[in-house]
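The instructor's notes for this session suggest beginning with a concrete chain rather than abstract definitions. Hand out the sequence below and ask the class to guess, before any prediction is shown, which regions might be ordered.
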Amino acid sequence: LAYHQFMKGDAWGGDQHTTPAGVFEKQMAMLKAKGFQIIPLESIVNALHGNTTLPPRAAAITIDNGFKNSAAIAGPILKKFDYPWTFFVFTNLISAGGSGASWAQLNQMYKEDYVSVQSQTASHKFLTRGLGQTGQAYKDWLVSELTKSKLQIQREVGNVANLLAFPYGLP
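After discussion, reveal the predicted structure:
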């Protein structure tokens, strides 16, 4: 299950990527009532590689981008249900403050062992387009986008960032 942003309240507010807290909490309760087992995304990846098996009715929860409202609104709801989740962040947003979650928030959630912080690159640009570069300049930019965010997450939070969410999905 993939999410992007959250807002307080129970009513949808016109932005298809922003989930109201009340709706999100009802969705999480429904998953529990229907017997879904929410597991870390890494466990699903390991099963896809044949390294383990999945429990019945397994599902993972991911939240993209790294917005402050995701940490502040969705984080406590997921903790209440004891659901692990993956927070895909683009590190320029986290580093800039403003609408981004803080490194302190990410650290706290990670230390409480219910979130895995993973990369959505450094700048959240289309990976297939770059910034108009071609040839070696594009390759250098792409390597920087991928490694800079991964290393910063590992340095700031302490978990190994071994998953990637493509900004805007796959081409």
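Then share the key points. The chain has a mean pLDDT of 91. The chain has six helices and eight strands.
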